[in-house]
Amino acid sequence: MADPMPSWWRGATKTAVLEFVEAVTTAGSPDFVPPPERIAVFDNDGTLWCGQPAQAQVLFACDRAAELAAADPSLKAREPFRAFLDRDMKAIEALGKEGRFAFAFAIHAGMTVEAFQRLVRDWLDKARHPTLQRPYDQTVYQPQLELLAHLRASGFKTFIVSGGGVDFMRAFAERVYGVPPEQVIGSSVKLRFDAAGVGPCELTKLAELDSFDDREVKVENIGLHIGRRPILAFGNSDGDLAMMRYTVSGPGRRLALLLHHDDAEREVAYDREFRLSPLVEALDNAARYGLTVVSMKRDWEAVFVE
Amino acid sequence: MADPMPSWWRGATKTAVLEFVEAVTTAGSPDFVPPPERIAVFDNDGTLWCGQPAQAQVLFACDRAAELAAADPSLKAREPFRAFLDRDMKAIEALGKEGRFAFAFAIHAGMTVEAFQRLVRDWLDKARHPTLQRPYDQTVYQPQLELLAHLRASGFKTFIVSGGGVDFMRAFAERVYGVPPEQVIGSSVKLRFDAAGVGPCELTKLAELDSFDDREVKVENIGLHIGRRPILAFGNSDGDLAMMRYTVSGPGRRLALLLHHDDAEREVAYDREFRLSPLVEALDNAARYGLTVVSMKRDWEAVFVE
């Protein structure tokens, strides 16, 4: 049989993943899980694609701020507009994780969801990643595409559960990851549907944050959107720890994978010092929490899609 | 070819439904819709199963109130406990649609989602519908099971979008309708995940209402949960009108179906006077809004599952 994950080095981690999938999908196995219960959840930034030097949505907001400032130069002097315009990472960091997303959301208030997604698609068509110098589509991790495909071929339903904006991710998740919009969970603003009068029936994005999908909230949103405890979770930061702990604490076979960015040569080596989304507690307590650490350096034969 | 919907009388409505499905699924048809975009949304109470004399969840709350009052008799004198204990429909109606659900939610605060769903399943196993005198599973409409199955066989993804509690419906929707939990959208309370300490990692239901999934909010929740405009919607009350209007106002072929309960002999004839969930505006303006009215009396050869 062909290797379903050729970009993973043969070793203990790959064996653990393949063996888990086989155990839960083999009829008659004591670990067998019926297909409807084969739920897998993946973080996005830093797990499915590159999260450096910042989450893609932060870089999108920088570009968007530049467009808005071109139309209204008075914005240039206003914080946090100025920070995004200047790509001042220290000032952007100082906003906090939620503050950064709140800014990214606020500048799109009043747009319809469909217009916003056209904006995201147009940006992805022309933007280039600032350090990798390639389109964002090519900052996606090839080993993860293989894992997602292997899970789906094995009867899993694959979900994204990310701090990123849900409408932002849905603009590309189906094309890039094969994950349809209804299987993307993320941070969100409140939406408004106004069917009064005879105008078009559209959903509009409001400025008000609805959910900041990080840490414990990831689990609460899994409860709201999926309603079933996943049997596999994959993350790369402390923001994913609650979701990984929720996953492994259910009955039966479970697998939680933690990607460690330890490959300075092919990507970026970072963990606890990355202020936009640190990895400290999950890494220091991986064994205690039952997490399988995936080393980008040792476990991945290829990193990015070609 | 076998008739996929034998419980629908041959006539204009059935023809419209079958013709719609054929048009959007036939490759090369000008109305062809790729499978990932074949999203169908169904209301639950009064659309997929009987919603009389009240939504099943209201009747569940009545039974639950009796259990709680048995353990704590002081509750018997307290409103709205007393109204539910006495099945005082006038007093229950007076609470308003949201107030009724708020009570149903509040009495389960503090339970884990999983424990609550065991409670619902136990209730469904033993409860009998007060007027139809049969288990609730048998208050499901046979023609709708056939339509759901036909849509799924035609590459549709079928969703429930209901004012009912999402955790309540998820306890039976997969078994009864073939709709998995992640395709059930409903009213919800906030959930809390507490991973501090070494206790079990569980999601707990809080008393606070998160979303009352009715009218415009149904569309906003479609935006949050699905992220794609449905091409087919099926409802039976004004609470479904926004979702039907959103569905038909997109580009390309669309179908919105409105079930009219006009069959006093086999079920209950009701519409504008049903205070728990009236049907007025959608019925009076069906043609203007592009809705196809389904008459239970004339379009359904059978009503309930056997």
If you had to describe this structure to a student in words, what would you say it looks like?
The structure is a homodimer of 306-residue chains. By secondary structure, chain A is an alpha/beta fold. Chain A has a domain at 12-52 and 135-299: HAD superfamily/HAD-like (Rossmann fold), CATH 3.40.50.1000. The first copy, chain A, contains 14 helices and eight strands. The first copy, chain A, has helices at 12-25, 56-71, 81-85, 89-94, 96-106, 113-126, 142-153, 166-170, 173-177, 216-225, 241-248, 281-284, 286-289, 296-299; strands at 39-42, 157-165, 184-193, 203-211, 232-235, 255-262, 269-270, 292-295. In chain A, strands 1, 2, 3, 4, 5, 6, 7 and 8 form an eight-stranded mixed beta sheet that branches. In chain A, a hairpin with a 6-residue loop joins strand 6 and strand 7. In chain A, helix 2 packs across helix 5 (96-106) and helix 10 (216-225) crosses helix 11. The model of chain A has no long low-confidence stretch (mean pLDDT 94). Chain A binds chain B through residues 36, 39, 113, 157, 159, 166-167, 170, 174, 180-184, 188, 190-195, 200-201, 203, 210, 216, 219-220, 223-228, 241-242, 245-246, 249, and chain B through 36, 39, 113, 157, 159, 166-167, 170, 174, 180-184, 188, 190-195, 200-201, 203, 210, 216-217, 219-220, 223-228, 241-242, 245-246, 249.
